[in-house]
Amino acid sequence: MNVELEAARELLDNARRIVAVTGAGISAESGVPTFRGPEGVWKSYRPEELATPKAFGRSPQLVWEWYAWRRKLLEHCSPNPAHLALARLAYDHLKVAIITQNVDGLHTRAAGDEGGYADPSPALPIELHGSIARDRCSACDSRQPGSATIDVTSLGTLPHCDRCSALMRPDVVWFGEALDRVLLDQAFHLAKSADVCLVIGTSALVHPAALVPLTTLDNGGKLIEINPHKTSLSPYASARLSAPAGTILSKLIHS
Ligand code: BV8
Ligand code: ZN
Question: Residue 105 has what DSSP assignment?
């Protein structure tokens, strides 16, 4: 591990521009269940079955029950040392951009916890899949802060839009939905010009987010992967740290 740690440190020290691409694994040590991990995400449903427009059309109460359960869980979760180390790296070296697939808001909280004074903070992530903390109207796109207490007893008790009274939905990107074009282009642009892509806690299965690290590689950049398990990206990593992000990232960043 030390050889890999040294190699990873050297890559980061010599890099002019770094992108960090994170997935559910970086939040595992905060107590947020990963999507494909053994603890599963919720009852016996797979995210691909619940996090879809079809599931929401078919049973909005069930989908809202799942998101309320996740929001409740997140009330007891805080950024872990991995989120904080990444936020510090972004503040200390303005050469770092954080791109996340996660909707849990923990990178945003870490940016605040690290108390940076720049506005907008360089530690704020590009949230490719949106944020579970917000509701979005399913018709007119108005947004409002989301609650963890949702009355799912009937369609009428679910959150409705103050403006057009259509059903509200969590402000996340579901499977089968397009990502925000501006955010995606920003992510690819940053990845293209990065010397190093730090890929943390993702199974690299979800597209198009999984293409972001490959964009760095395609443009001559290097990959550092932090993940206790191998993924399809592992063979392309110049350094692989097979350890939980919460323990290894602060070692990597603060030598
Ligand atoms: C779209 C929000 C088109 C919702 C999420 C090409 C190839 C294959 C499939 C597709 C493709 N193109 C499109 C698809 C379909 C689909 C897709 O990718 N399916 C996959 C599953 C096969 N993609 C889409 O539908 C996307 N939309 O392409 O639209 C389009 C275009 C125009 C017009 C209309 C449509 C939308 C995808 C977004 C889905 N939304 N989240 C919600 O959260 O409720 S994705 C969801 O999965 C989460 O955001 C999560 O972050 C993400 C990815 O999962 P991971 O983060 O990687 O998490 P996972 O559990 O899998 O892995 C955790 C990893 O951490 C593991 O490797 C583990 O070893 C590691 N780990 C564990 N503990 C630790 C750790 N690592 C470090 N430290 C630890 N302690
Ligand atoms: Zn509306």
Answer: -
Distance, CA of 44 to CA of 166 (rounded, Å): 29
Residue in this structure with the two tokens 């932090």, named with its chain if needed: 226
pTM of the model: 0.95
Atom of ligand 1 nearest to the CA of 209: 37
Within 75-210, where are the H helices? 81-92, 106-113, 181-192
Catalytic residue among 93, 107, 129, 207: 129
Domains of the chain: 1-31+79-129+179-255 (3.40.50.1220), 33-76+147-172 (3.30.1600.10)
What are 32-43's pLDDT values in tens digits?
A: 988 776 655 555
129 is catalytic: yes
Pairing of strands 143-145, 130-137: antiparallel
Distance 73 CA to ligand 2 centre (A): 27
